[in-house]
UniProtKB/TrEMBL annotation:
NCBIfam families: PRK02899.1. The lineage of its organism: Bacteria, Bacillati, Bacillota, Bacilli, Bacillales. Belongs to the MecA family. Signal peptide: none annotated. It comes from Novibacillus thermophilus. This is Adaptor protein.
Length: 198
């Protein structure tokens, strides 16, 4: 489980499939109101408090993004607490969860710099028969948007290698197209290898 802050009232939690399996949770359980999911949420909030000082009570919006081969990304946005909530120590912290789930066959990887995405392309291109992916630059980072084009088990291996160089992100391709710069609109891996030889 990895936690990062997105803003004053928003955090992002990356859950691997191992995190879910350890707790006996299936992907489909994430939008069910069951004790195991509540325990997972409490664990996430505890880690967010310990690592980021992020504390929640009251209304919380939870967005769950299921990523192929990678697990899930959970974005938690807290509502503004009313003044009396800070004053009343008798109240237990209660979460009012509003959960939405999105699932996609597409995955977007974020890379810190050009060298990282080029190295990833050289490692992964031989694993696929297609050029795969679109490459974007946005806010100083590089992004590779991928569709599952090579079958489930092969895609899992492919994603595992990419994870050595970058990380999945909840930034959507629509955001990258609108606000970023399109580097390669198609055949991203092929073009990275072609223009940046090892």
């Amino acid at each position: 489980m990895r936690v990062e802050r997105l803003g004053r009232d928003k955090i992002r939690v990356f859950l691997t499939f191992d995190d879910l399996v350890e707790r006996g949770i299936e992907k489909e359980d994430m939008w069910r109101d069951i004790p195991r999911v509540h325990e997972l949420f409490n664990d996430m909030m505890e880690q967010a408090y310990e690592e980021l000082g992020f504390e929640v009570s009251g209304p919380v919006a939870v967005e769950v993004f299921a990523l192929p081969a990678q697990g899930m990304v959970v974005v938690v946005t807290r509502g503004r607490p009313k003044d009396h909530e800070w004053m009343d120590d008798q109240d237990e912290e209660l979460y009012e969860l509003e959960v939405t789930l999105e699932e996609s066959d597409q995955v977007v990887f974020q890379f810190d710099d050009l060298e990282a995405i080029v190295q990833a392309a050289h490692r992964t291109l031989p694993m696929t028969e297609s050029g795969m992916g679109r490459v974007y630059m946005y806010e100083g980072r590089y992004y590779l948007a991928l569709d599952n084009e090579c079958g489930t088990s092969a895609f899992d291996d492919f994603i595992a290698v990419l994870s050595e160089y970058g990380q999945t992100t909840t930034t959507t391709e629509a955001v990258l197209i609108e606000y970023g710069t399109t580097v390669f609109a198609e055949d991203g891996l092929v073009n990275l290898v072609r223009y940046f030889p090892a």
